[in-house]
């Protein structure tokens, strides 16, 4: 399967074999500039590389101008219904537009947006969602993978007929098999970079699982150039989940990767509590490192020797490893988190 073409969003390249890019979307009203900027900065600190904001009205489009002055991450304007909002967002400095072919249907207006975007070198994502699919592309009342692809191709052809080629495409549904099959079909039609996601996935627990399955299948098949994990709640959780998906597939890693014993009757320390406390203490770490927190020698000895840093539990104590070697034997359980975190942070920051 060939590589997708490269499309640049601000200074971030999508496609062409470049690393899969992590995206998210603000949940604040865009007109509330200070709150939106604060959330964008939190997202960026968590590893978000492109941020999308809602543009439901002219005031939101104008707010982009102020937001852009305060942040360095590329900003995508999310546009529905009114093409004038896309034009206003471009004027305000948006780095990318998201258009929905389900509710922006006038060919002349879409071409006008394409021309304005072309003049500014701003890419457009054709964002098809199952929940807003134009009735022209339904099979009866049913959404199908083929219908979603047809909706995307309809708008892609409009853009390309206007000479516009900086196109990214997304096909998203709550239904994982529908999303997966739609993206497989689209890849056969062209080399546009694919933005992957499972939309309306749910709250943090079920949403992260559903997203990991859908996005993970496609990434494992070599599809996808950028991902957004859609979760209800704090969007920082979306970024954390996205990095976990990428790390689990060996595509990218940011910060610690944890190997944690699931615990059994042999375990003599609070593995779950210690692991959670260590994760919190190491949140500032962005260097890719491996951490093993294991409850007994059965698998723990091997994992401790392979990890960059490890805790191997005994009965009410743990032995701390660094790079496969014991560095602190038999540390009392109540001191494990503090001593382990101090060791890791000291080496990461000064090593």
Question: What's the layout of helices and strands?
Answer:
Blueprint lengths: L6 E3 L2 E3 L6 E5 L7 H13 L4 E5 L3 H13 L4 E5 L3 H10 L3 E4 L7 H14 L3 E6 L15 H17 L5 E6 L3 H12 L7 E2 L7 H17 L5 E3 L7 H13 L7 E5 L10 H11 L7 E6 L2 H10 L2 E5 L3 E6 L2 E8 H18 L1
Parallel strand pairs: 3-4, 3-10, 4-5, 5-6, 6-7, 7-8, 9-10, 11-12, 12-13
Antiparallel strand pairs: 1-2, 13-14, 14-15
Helix pairs in contact: 1-2, 2-3, 3-4, 4-5, 5-6, 6-7, 7-8, 9-11
Can I get a quick summary?
The protein is of the alpha/beta class and 351 residues long.
Number of helices: 11
Helix content: 40-55%
Largest sheet: 8 strands, parallel
Provide the CATH topology of the largest domain: TIM Barrel
- Secondary-structure-based class equals alpha/beta
> Tell me, what's the shape?
elongated
What percentage of the residues does DSSP assign to strands (E)? 15-25%
Helix/strand order:
EEEHEHEHEHEHEHEHEHEHEHEEEH
Rg of Cα set: 23 Å
CATH class of the largest domain: Alpha Beta
- Average predicted local confidence, pLDDT: 95
CATH-level-2 architecture of the largest domain: Alpha-Beta Barrel
Number of strands: 15
The span between the termini is 41 Å
Question: CATH H level of the largest domain: which superfamily?
Answer: Dihydropteroate synthase-like
The spatial strand order of the largest sheet comes to 8-7-6-5-4-3-10-9
**Which stretches of 5+ consecutive residues score pLDDT under 50?**
none
- Domain count, please report it: 2
